[in-house]
Amino acid sequence: xxxxxxxxxxxxxxxxxxARAEKLILAxxxxxxxxxxxxxxxxxGVVLTRWPAVHWLEASTFYQVLTAHGLDMLIYWIIFFEIAxxxxxxxxxxxxxxxxxxxxxxxxxxxxxGAVVNNIAVYQGASSVMMTSYVPMMAxxxxxxxxxxxxxxxxxxxxxxxxxxxxxxxxxTYQGSVPLVTFGAIVACIIAxxxxxxxxxxxxxxxxxxxGVVEHVDPLIYRMIWWAFGHSSQQINVAAHISIWYLxxxxxxxxxxxxxxxxxxxxxxxxxxxxxxxxxxxxxxxxVSTEWKVVNTSYFMYxxxxxxxxxxxxxxxxxxxxxxxxxxxxxxxxxxxxxxxGNPVFSGVFISIVGFGFLGGISGVMxxxxxLNMIIHxxxxxxxxxxxxVVVGTTLSFMALTYYLIPVLxxxxxxxxxxxxxxxxxxxxxxxxxxLVMMGAGTLGVSRRHWDMAFNGAAMAxxxxxxxxxxxxxxxxxxxxxxxxxxxxxxxxxxxxxxxKRLESGAQSRKVTPIPPTAPAAAVQSYGSMGFVAPGTFVLxxxxxxxxxxxxxxxxxxxSTLWGLS
Amino acid sequence: xxxxxxxxxxxxxxxxxxxxxxxxxALSFVWCxxxxxxxxxxxxxxxxxxxxxxYKTAPDVFIDKxxxxxxxxxxxxxxxxxxxxxxxxxxxxxxxIARLWSFWPILELxxxxxxxLHLTSLDYNHGFSLQPSNINIxxxxxxEHVLTVTPNQSGEFSIVCNEYCGxxxxxxxxxxxxx
Lengths: 566, 179
Prior knowledge:
The structure holds 2 protein chains of 2 kinds.
Chain A: E1 7-9, E2 16-18, H1 19-50, H2 59-92, H3 101-124, H4 141-170, H5 180-210, H6 219-253, H7 260-273, H8 290-297, H9 299-325, H10 334-337, H11 344-367, H12 381-408, H13 417-443, H14 466-499, E3 508-509, H15 535-559, E4 564-565
Antiparallel strand pairs in A: 1-2, 1-3
Chain B: H1 19-45, E1 54-56, H2 59-73, E2 74-78, E3 83-86, E4 93-99, E5 102-104, E6 106-109, E7 115-121, E8 126-131, E9 135-139, E10 143-150, E11 155-160, E12 173-178
Parallel strand pairs in B: 3-6, 4-7, 6-12
Antiparallel strand pairs in B: 1-10, 2-3, 4-5, 7-10, 8-9, 8-11, 11-12
């Protein structure tokens, strides 16, 4: 295969796109949005059934819809989008051609086939086993086969990304180290490889059990290895969406990382420690020792939490430094007040950062504490937490990035810009509310993955407190608002792609224009106050820390009132 | 210059750290260590630590042990299904079976007395969710989990299955009495 490809430099962003990479990014992003749309339609069924006053679907339909919702959102929407992000962070940011485009298309085809086969298995009705498909509850063989095909495709995509990095290095399209955003994408890719291999280790025997070749997959071992896949795949998201936060800080504000060493060091902590999180799901399980639980659940003494707390400071900190350099230096927060709140690329990311930290982060550490886990295990607190991390954190970041990519990558003018301006607020804030009331209901004990909190038909039904019913009603209202917000995103994205005004694509060239060497930046220490370059961000970080400490100890207080257990 | 361009200095691990970041990293690190120590200290001073005592088991073995307890200590039966209510003596081994879609039998314990509660599932994964106390434990088939429990309140409690176990999941709810 020759290098018969072309490059264009986007006149709006200055980014250089290679023709073949561009098509692959586009295809993966479009597939992602299609699955987001399917998952969003399924969300209507989930939300309107768990809203006690509505209680819409039959039990069998509800569990089927919930299974498909989990898979389409947590796996297909996010991983398709991540593959697009990986190709973007390698080929586009490093200005090189993509490695083995045909194999990349093959990977894409495998992923599409896998996702479709798996979805069909769920809609046929014999695979309502939830996303986690805990053995010995068995789904149809095609359920596992679809997942495995998808995983193999995604794994190939990861290697195409790594190959592209090699090409960029060999063809000297950049000098020195890769950009921070690409560095974050590499971290996401390394975690993805580990994750997908874990998935294969457990899903292949389970598939073989479903067709009768293997007799028995141990339920506890299944839970441990499945979660090395299930939880780690959320860690890919963390690495990916934090990379996007840095990217958006760079393109919206021209922000540079406050310290490359700190930001990259924090990413390295993810590689070393994020993988241990499988333990979060086994804290209430038999069979694993206390020492194993304590060390693993805390990512070996909370080093991955430390990394996230660092990014939580350095991303807004970098924005603050850039804003102060532009002259927004009054007081602690002028930089934030004068931020482009009407630009959905920025507002989406900012709402994502705050929600991911305050709602997803704090709740995640609380429930990941060995003993505290007993008060929330398998309650609806858990989906409350992970909607704050995955929806507010990852999905909202991906939405914000899409708004940036519509003119740059799609070469279309965004339709309905006024609507786009409001979309992150509607979607993000209704998700905040949704997560909060879910966690409230979970604190009262309400179960997750449960069709009927009234226990219709049970001989010894339990009567939940009235507050729990009220919270679940509010979950319904918040959920519907969020679904409307999601629908607006899909309307804007698909609409812009189909009938947005075409924009100039920029001159085509046969040759790569390499990235020029970066000039050393001026010292940032000349801005800010109290010797702090980003005092406003520091104050916000302290607010976060205080909220964290208070909430953490409130839950210990709650735990101390329970029955004695030893 | 920015996060989407290569850093100007080749050796990024030699970049200086400014005071904001340095202070925040130090504070965060201290907090992380506090949280880690809390889990360890609670094992020493706290009274709510989940036991890890576990044995492999098989359905027939566990059913036999449970039946023996039921034969010896049943005080009455409840509901149309005549589910036995069992009141074993303080300090003894008590057994609870989780299966599609019920818990069996109903336990009656004494306040401030300690019991060794054996949990297992005969089929799929189930959940042991004690309400309104809100203690939640995973029940895994093939494994016998032995918890040492000391109820600190008397009254009627409910045990809700909170691990999805199929179509009758929402009907899997039972009682537990503390005298």
